[in-house]
């Protein structure tokens, strides 16, 4: 199976919260990341969390990490149309990043 | 600060032809990566350079793909001969110290390859 798994699609209404979930496989991953990819663009680092943390908040973004279940989530508060993009979860393994397939977030005005 | 530059943005070729992609990383970034992103999938690492040396090329199909970073700055990725399954976006990324620290890779916009 895939090393990093994500649901492929998420649709939310503008102003609601979005929650994107991810499961990973390597319990020794030091860092876990969320990248954002807008159409026709490269990936941009949104946020990351160190493996000894269980939560990190950065403005509208909240990352939750459950190491026991190897589950990572990204919550976007007050989702805006500009948040429409593909969001990739990634784990650091053997010094390299392994990406999930990405979750396409669609924001309905 | 200028970002990661890649060219060409788009390339259409027929199978068995060759193609080359160019990448200029952010100034001062020692580590350079080439990723392949097939439609609907996440990026997959092809090769990682530290300065002008190869750190990891274990997932590079060496029978047809080659990459170099001769002077430790810009890099080229070549495919010869191309197959239909090589249709993808080829992303170049760079970082100051390599992934595994904070993991911040800076990506270019990518080169989209279509093989007919």
Give an overview in words.
The complex is a heterodimer of chains A (109) and B (116). Chain A has 109 residues and is mainly beta. Helices cover 0% and strands 58% of the residues of chain A. Chain A contains no helices and eleven strands. Chain B is mainly β. The chains are: A mainly beta (109), B mainly beta (116). At the A-B interface, strand 5, strand 9 and strand 10 of A face strand 5 of B.
DSSP strand (E) fraction of chain A?
over 45%
Structural class of chain A comes to mainly beta
Which sequence of SSEs, written as H and E, runs from N to C of chain A?
EEEEEEEEEEE
Sheet of most strands of chain B: 7 strands, mixed
What is Rg of chain A? 13 Å
**Most strands sheet of chain A:** 6 strands, mixed
Encode the helix/strand succession of chain B as letters: EEEEEEEEEEE
Compute the number of helices of chain A.
0
> In total, how many beta strands of chain B?
11
Sequence-ordered SSE layout with sheet pairings:
The complex is a heterodimer of chains A (109) and B (116).
Chain A lengths: L4 E2 L2 E5 L4 E6 L7 E7 L5 E8 L4 E4 L2 E6 L4 E6 L8 E9 L2 E4 L3 E6 L1
Parallel strand pairs in A: 2-11
Antiparallel strand pairs in A: 1-3, 3-8, 4-5, 4-9, 6-7, 7-8, 9-10, 9-11
Chain B lengths: L4 E3 L2 E4 L5 E6 L6 E7 L6 E7 L2 E4 L8 E4 L6 E5 L8 E8 L10 E2 L3 E5 L1
Parallel strand pairs in B: 2-11
Antiparallel strand pairs in B: 1-3, 3-8, 4-5, 4-9, 5-6, 7-8, 9-10, 9-11
Task: Write a compact overview of the structure shown.
The complex is a heterodimer of chains A (109) and B (116). Chain A is an all-beta fold.
Name a few traits of the molecule.
heterodimer, A: 109 residues, mainly beta, five-stranded antiparallel beta sheet, globular, B: 116 residues, 11 strands
């Amino acid at each position: 199976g895939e090393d990093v798994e994500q649901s492929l699609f998420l649709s939310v209404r503008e102003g609601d919260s979005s929650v994107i979930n991810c499961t990973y496989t390597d319990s020794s991953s030091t860092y876990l990341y969320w990248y954002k990819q807008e159409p026709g663009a490269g990936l941009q680092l949104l946020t990351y969390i160190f493996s000894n943390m269980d939560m990190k908040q950065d403005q509208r973004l909240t990352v939750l990490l459950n190491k026991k279940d190897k589950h990572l989530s990204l919550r976007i508060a007050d989702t805006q149309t500009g948040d429409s993009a593909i969001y990739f979860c990634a784990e650091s393994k053997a010094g390299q990043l392994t990406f999930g397939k990405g979750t396409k977030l669609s924001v309905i005005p | 600060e200028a970002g990661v530059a890649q060219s060409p943005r788009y390339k259409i070729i027929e199978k068995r032809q060759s193609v080359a992609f160019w990448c200029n990383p952010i100034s001062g970034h020692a580590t350079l990566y080439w990723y392949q992103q097939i439609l609907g999938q996440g990026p997959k690492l092809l090769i990682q350079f530290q300065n002008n040396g190869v750190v990891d090329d274990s997932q590079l199909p060496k029978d047809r793909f080659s990459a170099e970073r001769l002077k430790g700055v810009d890099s080229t990725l070549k495919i010869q001969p191309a197959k239909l399954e090589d249709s993808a976006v080829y992303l170049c990324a760079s970082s100051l110290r390599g992934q595994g620290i904070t993991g911040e890779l800076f990506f270019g916009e990518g080169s989209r390859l279509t093989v007919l």
